[in-house]
Write a structure and sequence with these properties.
A hairpin with a 2-residue loop joins strand 6 and strand 7. The chain has two domains: 219 residues, P-loop containing nucleotide triphosphate hydrolases (Rossmann fold), CATH 3.40.50.300; 94 residues, Helicase, Ruva Protein, domain 3. By secondary structure, it is of the alpha/beta class. The protein has a five-stranded parallel sheet with strand order 2-5-8-1-9. A two-stranded antiparallel sheet has the order 3-4. Helix 1 runs antiparallel to helix 2, helix 11 crosses helix 12 and helix 12 crosses helix 13. The chain starts with 9 loop residues before the first helix and ends with a helix.
């Protein structure tokens, strides 16, 4: 029988989620998805309008998770060397010395990633997929855990470069924060500055405890019918006429990994269909392209379409 005893660190995660919810108001589900993404060893893309709390959420998670934090402001003149680092010739030693870029951190915020050119965006590809960077023919490992949170402005805004499919596929999840509800927005307007509140927070977890939880995610039991359920979702996306192409095997692996992390946060060591359903919108929508000529898809409509079409085991 699968284990049902909650993992010891899950209580700490609950404390983290409760604390984050007092600062990022009314976004408990989105915060939980962000933590799920980290535990699943994925990377997170937050797409929304400026000013809704994307950067604040990233900074808050870094504080509460006790991770080394680095912020990269993506602009149109950003170069790959500004991300990964550069080798500089030092006259005293008469040799080149590598100066690490801001990507050498445990939590990297790639702020407004779609304001940089595709060349600069591609500097993150190897780092996100392999957790290493290669500069001047030498491969250098990145710190662990390594978690990229990228923010993205809507594509219709001036000065944006759309992320290519290969870049989007490196993100396990894409979420949107949206405007807060009326009550939460009034509390936000009347309350303390959110950035000041973030700076007052102390770490709830350590890097070692996060690594332990990430390992525990891999041990969450997945029954054969749930493998079939996940495969059914992939198969439906490939034959559905609404999409230019379906989900890749990598998308299916990521979906299951995220669902297992969601189950662990619920204190379970086994998967149920609701875990897959909870993370599916964040894991698959950015990997699908509509065939209506615009390529755009309605987030809620597509989620409902997939979950309605595929039978639950």
């Amino acid at each position: 029988m699968p284990q049902s005893t909650p993992h010891p660190q899950v209580k700490l995660i609950e404390t983290l989620l409760d604390t984050a919810g007092t600062i990022i108001l009314g976004k408990e589900h989105e915060i939980r998805l962000a933590v799920t993404c980290l535990l699943a060893r994925g990377h997170l893309l937050i797409e929304d309008l400026p000013g809704v709390g994307k950067t604040t959420l990233a900074h808050l998670l870094a504080r509460l998770l006790g991770l080394q934090y680095s912020r990269i402001q993506f602009t149109s003149d950003l170069l790959p060397a500004d991300v990964v680092g550069v080798s500089v010739f030092e006259r005293g030693t008469e040799c080149f010395r590598f100066h690490p870029g801001p990507v050498f951190a445990q939590l990297v915020l790639a702020d407004e990633i779609n304001r940089a050119t595709p060349k600069a965006q591609s500097a993150l590809l190897e780092a996100m997929e392999e957790r290493q960077v290669t500069v001047d023919g030498e491969t250098r490992p990145l710190p662990a855990p390594f978690f990229v949170i990228a923010t993205q402005n809507p594509s219709y805004q001036v000065g944006t470069f759309p992320l290519p499919e290969s870049q989007l596929d490196r993100f396990l999840m894409r979420i949107r924060l949206g405007y807060p509800a009326t009550a939460q927005e009034k509390e936000l307007l009347a309350g303390e500055d959110r950035r000041a509140m973030v700076l007052q927070q102390s770490a709830v977890l350590s890097a070692t405890e996060i690594a332990t939880l990430q390992t525990a995610v891999g041990h969450v039991h997945v029954a054969a019918p749930l493998i079939d359920y996940c495969h059914g979702i992939l198969a439906f996306s490939r034959r559905c006429e609404r999409f230019v192409h379906g989900l890749s095997p990598r998308a299916g692996v990521g979906l299951l990994r995220a669902a297992k992390a969601w189950a662990l946060l619920d204190g379970r060591h086994f998967l149920i269909p609701e875990d897959i359903q909870a993370v599916l919108p964040a894991c698959v929508i950015h990997r699908l392209i509509g065939n209506d000529g615009t390529g755009r898809l309605d987030h809620d409509e597509v989620s409902t379409l997939i979950l309605t079409a595929v039978a639950v085991p």
